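Dear Dr. H.,

I hope your travels went smoothly. While you were away I took the liberty of generating a structure for the chain from your last submission, since the lab meeting agenda had it listed for discussion. I wanted you to have the full record in hand beforehand rather than looking at slides cold. The sequence, exactly as received, is reproduced here:
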Amino acid sequence: MRFLLGAFALLAGRHASGDSVMDCVLHPPEDAKEYESCPSFYKLFPKNESQKFSMSPGPNGQYYENKSSRVGLSHFEDEERVQAVMSESVKAQDNTYIAKLFSDMSGMWLFSDENGDAVGAHYTFDLLEANLPPEEMHVLMPCKKTAVLKMECKPFDWLPLLEVGWKDSACTWTGVCEEEAMECRKITPYFSKCLPAEDFNEDDTFKGKPQSLNGASSETETGKEGGEKNSTSKATYKKVTGPEAVWPWDNCYFSGQCAVEGYQCFKNTRWPLFAQCMPAESCPRPRGKDTLKLQEVWGVDKASDMTPQKMVRRLLEHPDKTGYPAEWRGENGALKRRRLKECAEKNSEVGSLASANFAYKAEDHVKAVQSVFSKCGDEYFDFAKVDEVEQPKVLDLDLSDVLDLDKIDLGWDWMDEKLYEEAGGSEGWDCDNPLGPEASSDTGALKRDEARVTAWKMGLDPWETVPETKTSRRRRLQQIEVASSTFKGLQATQYQGEDTYFAESNPDVYDLPPPPKEKEYSYFKKKMCGDVPYHSWAPDKNLAFKLMCAPLYTWAPNILLAPGFYFAPKFTWAPAITLAPETILAPKGVWAPLIQTGPTVVAAPLWVFAPKIVLGGQFVFAPENVFIPFMVAGVETVLAPLNVIPDIFADWVFKRTDFGESKVKRFDDKIFKASDKKFIADKLDPVFTFIEEVDSKVGDVPLPLPLSEEKAKKIGLRKSLTLGAFFYSAIGLKVVCPRYRVDKDKKPLEPLSVKVFYYEPRDTRLKKDEEEKLSDQCVVPYPSDVLRDLPHLPKEAIYAIKAFEIAENLIPKPVKVAANQILTFSTILAEGKLPDVQKWLADVLEIDEKDLEKEDKEKDEDLKGMGASGLGWGPALYQSQHSKFPLGDLEKLFGTNSTILDMVKKVEMPSISPWEYWPFKKETP
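The corresponding predicted structure, in token form, is as follows:
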């Protein structure tokens, strides 16, 4: 049997060989002699030359390291401030926390040497500044001098292809599945995937339910490209054996052919392995207007000169030019830094900080931030303007609109402008050397109206998928004005722009929505949800509905084939394809190729720095950082902080301080547990077997250690490595949530502590080797649990932990009980299992389960012969054996007070109740 290491293995190999996800170069200042009295300056610059810092993901998030000097750079924020803002937002039941964090996010980028001593700090004031090191750093050093340093960061040049050839993975562009038992089948014109050959009949129909094929339906006629309906009205799914002609706006680099007439394949040299099918006459050519606008908005000459750092700086310094919403803006960071500088120099001694190594002393970083801002509170929260002097006007003339580039008439209509913007401008397009001929009937291409009908039946916008040409639009408008037109002809010309008035038209065309009306189109901004900036300087096509209520910046090819809802900023710097609904409620940054074929909900910061494939669904409700190739083959729900980082660190790096047993009262003994009955997870287990086999074989490939075991031990690295340390696959129905660590040697299992932070694939390895065992059920974490789970926290932190525990024990019991039951019930369902309600009732009411089983048998006997008419479900659960059930026992269930119980006791119990597990009528006393 032949296995494909695939793109993940290749990309993982790059990580194993030392390639960094992002490299940053720190340049020395021109006046280096000014800092001769600062020893820390020479730690940053051992030689008077630029220093390279490579991203090396560490336990505390992003970490950049200079391999030669061993100086590290990491960001830490004021955690108390974040928690306070989040709490206020929760109490108010709104999402204002996003805007508050963007406008007032205090923290620091901290340089530390190999011993963990602080070398210098750059203070940050905005969430945008925490994403990556700033382009200009104001580094405050222990010698009380501030050096202004330039730092240039460049992301890794990822290949946009992520077709790994595994079961259920995409094969749209290459048409290749490496496993012999797999075939590439075209599900829709825009999506093909690898499926078992045995699942299809000889006539290319699917043996199972078509709904399992990601959007395919037995009632959907997908047309020539996606299969045709046969005599039994079952859809066919064409077998693909290599690159084929692609549909409009898709990547045609591998085939060089387009599937719809009038479209042609043009290459763009800005990205490797990328070309796009577009109308032959719309290939964008250079125009001076683009350069002027790029200079005005972003301060660069070409879109390719734009870097993530430059964009962040521009958003912070000139938010008005970029269209950044006023309600999201804070005060200019330069003004904050100017006020804070003097106060920090007076009140903070960076050099006197305790050891603050990134791997195991993160609390010192947080203390440093908090100490500075606590002493400089007045200066920090003074938002008055500084040194603002109004300049006198020489001439009283208003010239603000003289250079308004939107008002320059180039003779283009709104559709020309729209297509030009969606192509990302002219940079990189080779319009004179197409990769293939223009598609026509001679090449077997679909007619435009047929393609529109197919797109409409797929749920896409037909006029976005195949827009009208300028000629056909003009012809249609002229024919509408012909007074002698019959009603049928008038209807045809209204809905079908490609056919002439006298031509026979496709009857399905009449079911299409009308073409968009001619309107003015803003080249630089789309207003879909208020005054929200939308900047696309790369090929960006939306073929489905999109509601955008937050800034969206696209700097790499992006295609959206499903509904998207954006309520928080999204940044795209690498090719992204979305084939399923996506909801964005928190900042999302994409820095590496991303393919989503399953629904995704992002409700917490998500940063993707390495290739990621979502084949099922993903729901992100806690921070997630991806630094190595990551594939979701199933459905993953993230409810706890997840860091996908190389599994190269020794176990002592993650060692936690033992603070003794937690004193928090949790009330989680009577929670929902999974039933033994078969449910979704059991049915899906065989589906993921193949992927698990491939994942295991690839992951077990040994890798040579570049250092001796002795050196590796000193710097905190593992003694031996495999390829599995550099990629991670979430296979099946996974829930990442806080769980108990349990003692595997004791029966019953004894809870030890709460695991809050996850580090994959390390945690998977520990579970496989039985070095760490976690509870089956999720638990509600408290702030004291978070502190206990931080690596290498000093023992003095026990006082803070005890203070938290005292406060946590003041939380009312009903709140804790409800939280535990809601969490366990929902997470069991997310794992594809069935909650055991009967066992839960037995635990809550302290009833013997055998009695409940006997009760079930009696009910089953009573049900026989009753037919479908009766609501009488046999002897009611509480009427038969537990008719003397004391209502006061509700305290065991919800911890309710006597006032509520007195009210409930007045409610009579029905003789026969359809509410099987609820003994009271739904009425008020």
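Two observations you may find useful: The chain has 27 helices and 38 strands. The radius of gyration is 31 Å.

With kind regards,
E. W.
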